[in-house]
Amino acid sequence: MTSSNQWIQWVKPAQAGDQEAFTDLVRYFQTEGYRAAWLWAGDGAEDILQEAFIICWQKLPQLRKPAAFRSWFYRILRRTALDYVNKHRAELPQDNLDPLISPPPGSPSATDADRLQAALRELPDLQRDACTLYYYAGFSVKEIAGMTGAPEATVKSRLFHARKKLRALLLTDGMASHPPTAQAQKEDHHEHLQKHLQRPGPVQPVSNDSFKA
Questions:
Q1: Average pLDDT, integer, range 152-161
Q2: Separation between Cα atoms, residue 46 and residue 168, nearest integer Å
């Protein structure tokens, strides 16, 4: 999640065709964008991120408010990731996916990040989507409702049921030893996501050549 809004200064020049300004935007958002795409789509994250940035470059003149770039970028990234998942889900047997996302219990490689990722992948798609946007990307329920087209009450319901299922999965897997209080629930899950979902990926900077007409 970004810590400041310094990226806003690059949006207008990029809209005017400044490739260096857009490259600055790419560099600023590529790490958090990769990690969000990885939560949505796993190993396809790098391709998804590259495609999302190219779409952003092509459609950037249509963006009316520079301050809306981050949420606009995430809408594009999310749509690209969901399209990728829908396209490739039928191509890979579920039995072949399990070893990639869920290391055997007790395995030395079964880190907290691996277990949390495996738990997230057990959630229904819409609940995982809400968790990614809310706990990792830091969007509000209202913003998520606008991004996904779902009523705010529906977003809240997805988060509620996702928390229950995640908590049960993590307790079963040994990541948690006691249920959180209602007040601490969001902070607890947010801490897990912030701490354990920092999986770096082999993100290659998007070449300026990709943005040329």
A1: 94
A2: 31
- pTM of the predicted model as reported, rounded to 2 decimal places: 0.68
Q: Give the C-alpha separation, 105 to 184, whole Å.
A: 28
Which of 120, 87, 90 lies closest to 102, judged by CA?
120
For residues 12 and 24, the answer to whether their CB atoms sit within 8 Å is no
Q: Which of 164, 169, 171, 155 is nearest to 185 (CA)?
A: 164
What is the pLDDT confidence band of residue 62, given thresholds at 50, 70 and 90?
Answer: very high
Distance of alpha carbon 194 from alpha carbon 77, whole angstroms? 19
Q: What share of the chain is helix, strand, coil (3-state, %, to 5)?
A: 70, 0, 30
Find the radius of gyration of the CA atoms of the chain.
Answer: 18
Question: Is 80 exceeded by the pLDDT of residue 75?
Answer: yes
CA distance 39 to 100: 13
Q: Dihedral of CA 208/38/175/127: which sign?
A: positive
Q: Provide the pLDDT for residue 11.
A: 96
